[in-house]
Amino acid sequence: MTQGAKDPQRVNYRAVPDESGHFGPYGGKFVPETLMPALEELEEAYLQARSDPDFLAELAYLQRTYVGRPTPITYARRLSEHLGGAQIYLKREDLAHTGAHKINNALGQALLMKRKMGKTRIVAETGAGQHGVATATAAALLGIECVVYMGTVDMARQEPNVFRMRLLGTEVRGVDSGSRTLKDAINEAIRDWVTNVRTTHYLLGSALGPHPYPAMVRDFQSVIGQEALQQMLDSQDGPGRLPDVIVACVGGGSNAIGIFHPFLEYEQVRLIGVEAGGLGIESGQHAARFADPKLGRLGVLQGTKSYVLQDEDGQIALTHSISAGLDYASVGPEHAWLRDLGRSEYTYCTDEQAMAGFKALCELEGIIPALESAHAIGHVLKLAPQMDKDQIILVNLSGRGDKDLGTVMKELK
């Protein structure tokens, strides 16, 4: 097979989700009846926008002139030499405006709401704060009222991002129920949405939730993979061929599905998602939905069916990760479907392994990664030495680590 050629089609990856929003047995719409009209309105608006040249042109203009796309790929020469195996390239979403891939989806949904839906208010939720900052940024740019819900535990460990959102004119509402993290913030955002659905759009930040969110967020984030595909095939600034492996961290899964999706049909490219192993799978204190068969089972959480961490009674299990952005009990339904097909693989990094990845990228490449992205780097530390020097790994560096410095300072004391 020649470089850049697609394998004969075995699975039509573009045929999902189906009309009911399912990726095989996963996905769907599990919401109160009062929200069904809002989801139908959103789906209709998105389907129209997806084929509207004016909408697509305006989004592309803002991506170029405001977000700073395309983000580059960077050859990590010193990290590659240090590990002594595969050559490592980084897709630099940390260089996008606001410092993470989250702006791709936030800007897309905010523009959709402004241009196609006629609503005046956004609610959102955030864990690490990057989605909240991206949403606040898009709302400021487009002149939209914005409220962001955030667990109080996450507010404490992501204080700079809370301040950034407030500077941007957004109201940040702390959530002091449950584990006081992302899951609880999503619950509060949904309650607000139910109450104010006529005027309010829920700007969901990852490729999960009820249909059409998983597909819509995936499509807005697929710009990452579309650019990366062209850049890897470029022999001047890139290696001039497809990567052998793509690695990305997986919380809800939006950065991973964004870079995976345009590569799905190139079946010679391995796709690896890295979940948060926290204090270790045996400890039960983690957010690795696929790695722990005792806790990770099929279930419904916040509007969609997927793998969900649950206790013996079927209640949502408490999660732990050093990274607020990966600290979530479920995973996007498309990831669960791709895993069943064997098209993508999933592993995990513990907090300790992620910190090793964090330090390696700082010291060898002069790049301070987000703790989410450090999980992907942590896996590369193990994977690259096992590969040949003429093989290539592409890592999606989903965000920068400024927001995590408080957490890192405590860890390194």
Automatic annotation (TrEMBL):
Gene Ontology cellular-component terms listed: cytoplasm
Pathway connected to this protein: Amino-acid biosynthesis; L-tryptophan biosynthesis; L-tryptophan from chorismate: step 5/5
Residue ranges constituting the Tryptophan synthase beta chain-like PALP domain according to the UniProt record: 67-399
GO MF terms held by the record: tryptophan synthase activity
Enzyme kind, highest EC tier: lyase
Residues in coiled coil: none
Enzyme Commission number(s) of this protein: 4.2.1.20
Key words of the record: Amino-acid biosynthesis, Aromatic amino acid biosynthesis, Lyase, Pyridoxal phosphate, Tryptophan biosynthesis
Alphabetized Gene3D superfamilies for the sequence: 3.40.50.1100
Positions where N6-(pyridoxal phosphate)lysine occurs in the chain: K102
Pfam families documented for this protein: PALP (PF00291)
Catalytic activity: (1S,2R)-1-C-(indol-3-yl)glycerol 3-phosphate + L-serine = D-glyceraldehyde 3-phosphate + L-tryptophan + H2O
Cofactor(s) needed by this chain: pyridoxal 5'-phosphate
Physiological role: The beta subunit is responsible for the synthesis of L-tryptophan from indole and L-serine.
Classification via NCBIfam families: trpB
PANTHER family per UniProt: TRYPTOPHAN SYNTHASE (PTHR48077:SF3), TRYPTOPHAN SYNTHASE-RELATED (PTHR48077)
Family: Belongs to the TrpB family.
Assembly, per entry: Tetramer of two alpha and two beta chains.
Name of this protein: Tryptophan synthase beta chain
Gene: trpB
